[in-house]
Design brief:
Elements lengths: L1 H8 L2 H64 L5 H10 L2 H4 L3 E8 L1 E2 L3 H10 L15 E2 L4 E3 L3 H4 L10 H13 L3 E2 L16 E9 L8 H7 E10 H8 L2 H6 E7 L7 E4 L6 H4 L3 E8 L2 E9 L3 H117 L5 H25 L8 E3 L1 H16 L3 E6 L7 E3 L1 H17 L5 E12 L1 H7 L4 E10 L6 H6 L17 H11 L3 E7 L3 E9 L25 E5 L3 H14 L2 E5 L2 H8 L7 E5 L8 H11 L5 E5 L16 E5 L4 H15 L2
Parallel strand pairs: 13-15, 19-20, 19-21, 21-22, 22-23
Antiparallel strand pairs: 1-4, 1-7, 2-3, 5-6, 6-7, 8-9, 8-11, 10-11, 12-14, 15-16, 16-18, 17-18
Main location: membrane
GO cellular component, one term: membrane
EC number: 2.7.13.3
Length: 761
């Protein structure tokens, strides 16, 4: 047995050497192949990114041109330079649409009107207008507008697009199809300096009447011009294509088959890049009626160099360690015989110990799996409990409110059929009261979901707290001492003041309820700069905030109650004494305003609720909270209000209120019809519109389009919840206001009179 063991060990070293070299070679081959595959996939991924980016940007620019065409179609080719420039500035052209040299408009007119059109161009705001060059074409299309007004774009004013066959082909394709059409590779008229690039145009046709006619013949007859975008190919592709993708795959874009005459753009590359390119790809794009060819070739990036270094490292390292292991094995062979008998006696003990460890490991693994299963079950249970609590609370409260409304209406109907009108007012009051409570409940739910309609204003929180102090003292009662600690030089914040007042009053009421035997409430403000670590702990963005904290000396809250305190319908108060929506409403309101709400409490030590509100860089408004509203005048003769809402019941209600106030009401059901009225000569003194509308535009977009021709038009938005389309930089523009559904008829009438009264001063 011992001799056989000695002979067997002699083969260990050669086997290790041979096996190690074989494994090293196999690993090197596998790693090399995986590196090749990874490089190939990286290259294909980069090419897909570049292709999708080009297509996506072309769609974006087409949508931009379609919007401009809509402006000219709506005004029937009477847009002035000032209006068009206002449109370009409003869409933030230079910042939102990189790579576009300019956007402009070119009318289509008979050649005999060349001279007379120059006079019309002067009236539209374009001085010294001249159509060039002279041609014998029956029609001309001179560039009338080109924005933004830089030297390059100004060089194109008056240029007859139909004088060039390539540009003429683009115009005729756009005119006959009604779609955006791209030109072939051209030298732009705007190329006035030495830094010249290949370029192309994209035209969007404009038809009289706005809509695209159904047949090519009608399109030619109603064609009045086109809105165009001018592109310098080098600037465009250098701007829109991500640098990371271009690092892995260089590309060249051709208008048609690849050649020097059709090259639009080529990525910057090393002179030897083509020779060293390992992968290539050819792709075709159909953009604006033109077939573009895109050729890709891989680049030698730092990532690929590191991959090849890994291959060589594995190969050399594997060989080195294989040789070392072989030498160690030869030396160990001599020692193996000496320890053989010792190992024989230890094998049984090792096997027994291994069996015990395996059994213990299996038990630990099973316990871990069981714990993970229980934790997952608990999480699902908590989720279902929260959903059930929310839906159950909603169903309970709304069923109670609906029962009051339905019962009151049924009794009103019964009494009226019987001719008994004495109790009708009582039942009507009950139904209206239930309706107001339902509106208050939806308001709280919208606050929790962060979708309520807010009217943020620059606010001095110290001044707001001082204005609320007397109300808070009367609300909490004489047993509670109120102490206000206002920080000097407190930063202003952009917030909805009435909502913040409501949140502060709710916190003080909760503090009062936590101290049934009396106590002390401290209302404190402070400036706070939250660093990155503090922001992570508080689950908020780092930055400058002001804090509004309410501290009580009550019973405090345990950790499990703090964890659920902001959940909707969660309350620790007895049944009937709280809805459980107060703190959730405060949390939703603060989060919607860009801040955070946090609770700090220990049982028996009281509680502190802090609202963190973002600092506003401007100055707070000098507003007096709680001022009364002066009497407002009724309608003057001929005053007209346009009502736009897709809900017929709401339109009827608003129209009836306007009629009672003496106003003339015009009702439409969609944004397209509303904009048509607003762009007509009909007198409109006020626009009342919903935000979510059919017709291709929402209420805010329709109002913005209307204000191009009616810049001082007052607008009242009526909406069921806050919509992002309403706000610009967090605020409404001057002359705009919001009224949240549902609303009282008196409130609607007062708001309408107030907005129209301001227009008379």
């Amino acid at each position: 047995m011992s001799a056989q063991r000695v002979r067997a060990t002699r083969w260990i070293s050669p086997v290790i050497l041979f096996g190690g070299l074989l494994a090293t070679g196999g690993s090197t081959v596998v790693l090399w192949q995986s590196t090749q595959l990874r490089d190939r996939l990286t290259f294909l991924h980069a090419t897909e990114i570049e292709l999708r980016t080009i297509e996506s940007q072309f769609r974006t620019y087409t949508a931009l041109l379609r919007g401009g065409a809509g402006l000219f179609a709506a005004k029937n080719d009477t847009v002035s330079l000032t209006e068009f420039r206002s449109f370009v500035e409003r869409i933030e052209f230079q910042s939102r649409y990189p790579g576009v040299l300019g956007i402009g408009f070119t009318p289509n007119l008979p050649a005999v009107e060349r001279e007379s059109f120059a006079v019309r161009a002067e009236a539209l705001g374009v001085p010294n207008f001249r159509v060039r060059p002279e041609t014998s074409n029956a029609t001309v299309s001179p560039v009338l507008f080109a924005e933004p007004p830089n030297p390059r774009n100004q060089a194109a004013i008056g240029y007859d697009v139909m004088s060039d066959p390539v540009r003429q082909d683009m115009v005729e394709r756009a005119r006959d199809t009604g779609l955006a059409a791209a030109s072939a590779r051209i030298h732009l008229v705007q190329e006035i300096d030495r830094n010249k690039q290949a370029g192309f145009l994209v035209a969007m046709p404009v038809y009289a009447g706005g809509a695209v006619p159904p047949t090519p013949e009608e399109r030619r007859n109603r064609f009045i011009g086109f809105v165009f975008g001018a592109f310098r190919a080098g600037d465009l592709f250098g701007t829109i294509v991500a640098a990371e993708a271009e690092e892995d795959a260089a590309f060249a874009v051709y208008d048609g088959e690849p050649s020097a005459a059709t090259l639009l753009h080529r990525s910057k590359r090393d002179p030897q890049a083509a020779a060293s390119a390992r992968y290539t790809r050819r792709a075709n794009l159909e953009l604006g009626g033109r077939a573009w060819t895109v050729l890709f070739e891989s680049r030698a990036s730092s990532r690929r160099a590191s991959s090849f270094s890994e291959v060589w490292l594995v190969c050399i390292g594997g060989m080195f360690f294989t040789i070392i292991l072989s030498l160690i094995a030869r030396r160990q062979r001599r020692m193996q015989d000496e320890v053989y008998y010792l190992n024989a006696s230890l094998e049984a003990r090792v096997e027994e110990r291994t069996r015990d460890l395996r059994l213990a490991n299996d038990q630990i693994r099973q316990a871990g799996e069981e714990r993970a299963r229980i934790e997952e079950t608990l999480r699902q249970s908590q989720k279902m409990e929260a959903v059930g609590q929310l839906t159950g609370g909603l169903a309970h409260d709304f069923n109670n409110l609906l029962a009051g409304i339905s019962g009151s209406l049924e009794l009103m109907q019964s009494r009226m059929q019987q001719g008994r009108f004495n109790d009708v007012d009582r039942y009507m009051s009950a139904a209206q009261g239930a309706t107001k409570r339902a509106a208050a409940l939806t308001h709280r739910l919208l606050a929790f979901s962060r979708r309520q309609t807010l009217d943020p204003k620059p606010t001095d929180v110290n001044r707001l707290v001082a204005g609320m102090e007397e109300l808070i003292r009367r609300t909490v009662g004489p047993n509670i001492a109120i102490e206000v600690v206002g920080a000097p030089n407190l930063w202003p914040t952009l917030i909805d003041p009435p909502q913040l007042e409501n949140a502060l009053l709710n916190l003080c009421i909760n503090a009062r309820d936590a101290m049934p035997e009396g106590g002390r409430v401290v209302i404190e403000t402070a400036n706070r700069s939250i660093d990155r670590q503090g922001a992570l702990r508080q689950d908020m963005a780092a930055g400058e905030y002001l804090s509004l904290c309410v501290t009580d000396t009550g019973m405090g809250m345990p950790r499990d109650v703090i964890a659920k305190a902001f959940d909707p319908f969660f309350t620790t108060k007895p049944t009937g004494q709280g809805t459980g929506l107060g703190l959730s409403m405060i949390y939703g309101f603060v989060k919607q305003s860009g801040g955070q709400a946090r609770i700090h409490s220990e049982v028996g030590q009281g509680s502190t609720v802090c609202l963190y509100l973002p600092r506003y860089s401007g100055k707070a408004e000098a507003e007096t909270f709680g001022t009364t509203r002066a009497a407002l005048p009724l309608a003057q003769a001929g005053e007209t209000v346009l009502v736009v809402d897709d809900e017929s019941t709401v339109r009827m209600l608003v129209a009836d209120v306007l009629a009672e106030l003496g106003y003339t009401a015009i009702e439409v059901a969609d944004s397209a019809s509303g904009l048509k009225v607003l762009q007509s000569d009909v007198r409109i003194d006020l626009l009342v519109t919903d935000v979510g509308l059919p017709g291709g535009m929402n209420g805010r977009q329709m109002a913005d389009a209307a204000r191009i021709g009616r810049p001082s038009l007052p607008v009242l938005f009526i909406t069921g919840y806050a919509e992002n389309a309403l706000l610009t930089n967090g605020q409404l523009e001057p002359g705009m206001a919001v009224l949240t559904k549902p609303f009282a008829v008196d409130t609607l009438g007062a708001r309408i009179r107030e907005m129209l009264a301001h227009t008379h001063h």
